[in-house]
Fold these 2 entries.
Entry 1:
Amino acid sequence: MSVDKQQLLQFLLRQGDNTLVLGHRVSEWCGHSPILEEDIALANTALDLIGQTQMWLGYAAEVQGEGKSADDLAFLRDAWDFRNVLLVEMPNGDFGQTLLRQFLFDAFQSVLMGRLMKSSDEQVAAIAAKASKEITYHVERSADTVVGLGDGTEESHNRMQAALEYLWPYVGEMFESDETDAAMAAAGIAPDPASLREEYEALIGKVFAEATLSVPESRYNHKGGRTGYMHTEHLGHLLTSMQWLQRAYPGCEW
Amino acid sequence: MYAQMIKTASAGVKSREEMTDQEREFQDKIDNDIKIEPRDWMPDDYRRTLIRQIGQHAHSEVVGQLPEGNWITRAPTLERKAILLAKVQDEAGHGLYLYSAAETLGESRDELVKLLHEGRMKYSSIFNYPTLNWADIGAVGWLVDGAAIVNQVALQRTSYGPYSRAMIRICKEESFHARQGYHAIMKMAFGTPEQKRQAQSAVDRLWFPAIMMFGPTDADSTNSDQSMAWKIKVKSNDELRQQFVDQTVPQIEYLGLDLPDPNIKWNEERGHYDFSDPDWSEFFNVIKGNGPCNVDRMKDRVAAWDDGQWVRDGLLAHAQKKAAAKVAAE
């Protein structure tokens, strides 16, 4: 079944912008983490996410068919054209908040990639297959850290609980569905995100139980990132540094 | 060269007659290029000097993340961002091997980090200079890693086995970084006039700090004789500096940039380039803590450590709980 190109483009931008923005956030830690092993792990995670971005946005640029590159999409769009979920643009906070955000996202990716590997779109399936190897160890590591800190000292537990409460209202957006998702599902390219929630809840529920963290009861969630309708104030600042060179010296080769 | 001005712990080089049997046997191994391994007997001064040198080298790798990290969030393309992330990840990895090498001498990583944070150990002077434009990132890879390679290739032959093996592994990665750095600055030097201006500015600012990395001139380099006799140090500061200048000047010329020192000239007779001495008073000032970034670099590192205390405590407490539960179950 053929799919509307604009819808496919939206879908690809959602994938690529998620990994781009989160990769950028994680890279902000460079040289400032609690221990050398974490500096290495954070740089490695950021590197994987940027690598995934190159694939997703590269394909997006191809589908768009305007002769643009992945770099053009990353560095020359303004905030309202970004399609990442709000969760990934949230500030790093302390190390616990960063790793909790990572876990909430990794868990989602691990559920999603399993489905995308079976996508009817060969390129989507190929990107998902490559990314899923990385996501498997990302989620293992972020889950272990959430458990270690949640079930560590009283202070680490309290900080993790506070981080979970802060980030929880941003989880629901990952499962929102709209006409783009309906088109992807109908074409067999990607599942309807809403259909992933049960598996996701089971995964995170197990980890949070082991971490002795209580999942907030509220199901209220913020949204507006994946449609571009209303990002947080944080995204503009992130783009300001990320895009600065390309904006200040347009048209250069780097 | 990430270790400079290492004070050799020694009362002076002993003659064979002055050595004990044990010391003579040790020196014979070194003279015959047999590596010293962690369990071998070694003079206390050899051990202490190596701990200082390897520790300083490790600290340099770790602090060195900061000037490069300064541009990760502003890297101009996805590929450049990925390359820089991979490089900084490698540097942190080098720090890890080197701390492990120091541990084989009986000094823990935590203790070395504590000494650094208390200002009782140093890291390479080069990381106390700022990275101000994107070309600086190319120049750091090309000049700073390039200078480090010149030193570290020599140190592959160092007498202490774990340090020598760490150098062999590290050199492979550093060579890759230097090539990538040169490629990045080539793009700038051959780019628009504004890009070329950034490349020139990077070379002008980083040239002297880079050649300072080899440490003071041999005439002012105290305590070197014992380190040379022990093959902790394999070539003199001036020899290494000359080697670096000789390999780098043609690279600057290829980029079409102005040489950063008007006295750089090929000397037919010596078969080497002549060049100006750096301002050694600046070097000693940076070593003393008065470089442009010393205070901020240490502030960042200490804050990272202090802010991370709860994380380390939390993970340790969890590991202990798990270990206790495992014992209880057995």
Entry 2:
Amino acid sequence: MEQFLQQMASGLANGAIYACVALALVMIFVSTDHINFAQGEMAMFSTYLSWQLMTWGANFWVAFVAAVLLSFVLGVVIERVVLRPLHTAPVLSIVVVFIGLLAICNSVAGAIWSYLLKEFPSPFPKTDFGIPGLIGPHQLGVVVITLLVLTALFVFFRYTPLGLAMRAAAQNPQMARLVGVRVDWMLALGWGLAAAVGAVAGIMVAHIVYLDPNMMGGILLYAFASALVGGISNPGGAVAGGFIVGVLENLVAYLGSQLEKTTGVYIIGNGEKLTVALIIVIFVLTVKPAGLFGRVVVKRV
Amino acid sequence: MAALLEVKGLKAFYGQTQALHDVGFDIEAGGITTLLGANGAGKTTTLRAICNMVRTEGSVRFDGAEIRGRATEEVVRLSIAHIPEGRGTFTTLTVEENLRIAAYTRRDRAGIAADLDRVFSYFPRLKERVQQQAGTLSGGEQQMLAIARALMLKPRLMLLDEPSFGLAPLIVQEIFRIMRRINQEDKVSMLLVEQNAALALDLADHAYVLETGRVVMSGPSSVVKNDENVRKSYLGY
């Protein structure tokens, strides 16, 4: 039982990370209809920025805030410089640009910081934090920080004029222009926010998976699965999807290990976690294409 | 007195296709002007051209300043409110959010609150539905929302594209009554595009008739109304 609860708790911690990256994907998807395949690598790059600041002597939280802000600026710049000229380009060209961005982030990070695994510190106190036997200090910290970030974003989008303008621009860009919203800037802001949220996820997960240029590859797949489970056009759904996928993969690993104990045969376990995520993607796409919380878009023709 | 909006030699293009050839007209401050014409004459395109939503050539002057070629959102910020055909509702936002988004460019909180009260006095029905998702409103309510939203911009000029489209006659009458009140009480000038020519000529004080992207006739509504060709082509008697 204790092991089960531990697995669930660590599933929530992983889920929090997936939720952040999934939210970043959804933020860009709702306003542009594109999945940013480079989201994970951008987050990885941000994590390196924070690591660099820490090796220069910055305190963890200073480096954290600075890296998140830098990522925001980088996100805005990428949209304005790289994607702006492609606004009317066909989808495939944009996909190629995303893959290019992915490769560039990856190889630039590798060139600057090398491909060797690096240890990444945890900012949370080893004692007095976490619940012994249930959830470790870093895992609890990850859940708390991501929940804070998600709440802040929710408040921003729900209650501020700028958040409202961004939602309006995503929902109906032409009409948003007709009420004076500078839609192009809203897109760039969305990119900035997505990059910042991704940075939070990267910096939080680096202590668990270690820092290296390929650290976000698997996580992006999980996040994609989360976004699809929740409904790719629904930010709240993507967050819920993140937690669902996180818990589900640990549940599968746990049940697998129990099965192995009782039957002595290894059927499914830790090694198959990623497979499970991909099965979820395919399953959702076949059975409920709009996701658990997504709305089916009906177009009048 | 110079006109509020002066359009001269306006051409508009969709890709290679030219939709407007040399359209010109003036809108007097405080008046209601209507554009009449058959389907495809270029009425909607004219409104879109004023807001730079299509590629244009020629001249559009608002309050004496050239605005042709300025980005749509910058034209709107000069206090020109465009209510597009199909009403342009933000369907996933609430009624209140649909109204607040139009005040996004304004910083006078007290003025915004006062204007919200004012539009609710014009459209009490919207007040009852203030927290409802705008996509769930009826067609008439969405048209009211579109006009209310335009008012939140504190416009000097309103461009209305077929406000009567798809609505029951009673609702249309109500909406046209409110448009007249907005024109008189809020001093908002209007450019009205309407299929229902009789209705439009009753409301407007000036009319222009478009045919295949050109102005073929213009004058005070009372004169245009009695023109034989207009009667035969657009009024049906």
